[in-house]
């Protein structure tokens, strides 16, 4: 009987022992985050990335917050966190002095003093289709989500000429490095058989043929589309797998829009809702207050939205045929621009991005389940409501 009791106690004890959390280098976390949302996708005015700290430093615990304030840094110190991951950067412009004259300088000074690294993942996380706006769409219960304003100039076409007998190996290497992904499809390419010619100089070391003699080789022209930020990785994989000393290839910048990268999103509710009921649901979900224009439609179903300040997307929201455009930071006169074509619903900047913390937590925890990760308990909304 005592053995049974002791066994039960042992099982209970081991079940409540917290899991082992392993330390990591900051760069391991950054590499993951910038694979998730490459910094090249941030807007020109933005300042995402590691703002304070040593990329090679070891961390045992990280705190996730929407904003970085003095209180957030103080919380990080109290909880033993060496890294704060935020959505909004604490630094946008250059800092010319550190005298503590404003909250930005004081926050950065506190982080440096306490050896706490600060990392921000801002508009690059806004611009990916699995980022901030998808999280908002999930909170709204919207289906069939698409990017509202896809960006141009983010796609390349890579063309390479490969000997027929090693074509599969080279193409597989390019696919594995991220080439050939188009929307929900991957391993996309176009291939044409042909004959290539070349003649090596006295300084060459040809894989096939003789120096100074024109060689005819059966080759395959392979074309594939890839995202610009993956070009270097795909090129390296292609060259490493290709047998030729000099790999003939072409790179084209495409004007095609990238359907998975851009600002805002649009989608549909499962069923139409009375406009006022939808706005009440938004208020219950996100809190704060909802400022809105005339309810020019009794029912709404197609919804457009943008995390953060999205007034610049009103023309695209109208063009999409959305019944409602939900965002924040609309100015007084901008509400007139609805012109009874769409309902503008301004729900507040903090409110529409507050769930970004959970998005980051879930993504990092899934990748690094044994790393200690905490959500901030500091309320950072600078706006109060009566």
Shape: globular
Head-to-tail CA distance between termini? 62 Å
- Low-confidence runs: 1-18
**What is the CATH architecture annotation of the largest domain?**
3-Layer(aba) Sandwich
User: Percent range for helical residues?
Assistant: 25-40%
**CATH topology assignment of the largest domain:** Udp-n-acetylmuramoylalanyl-d-glutamate--2,6- Diaminopimelate Ligase, Chain: A, domain 1
The run of helices and strands is HEHEEEHEHEHHEEHEEHEEHEEHEEHHE
Structural class comes to alpha/beta
Strand portion: 25-35%
Give the C-level CATH assignment of the largest domain: Alpha Beta
Q: What is the makeup of the main sheet? A: 6 strands, mixed
CATH superfamily of the largest domain: NIF3 (NGG1p interacting factor 3)-like
Secondary structure tally: strands: 17
**Count of distinct structural domains:** 3
The Rg value, from CA coordinates, equals 26 Å
Strand order of the largest sheet: 7-12-14-15-16-13
Quickly count the helices: 12
Taking all residues together, what is the mean pLDDT? 93
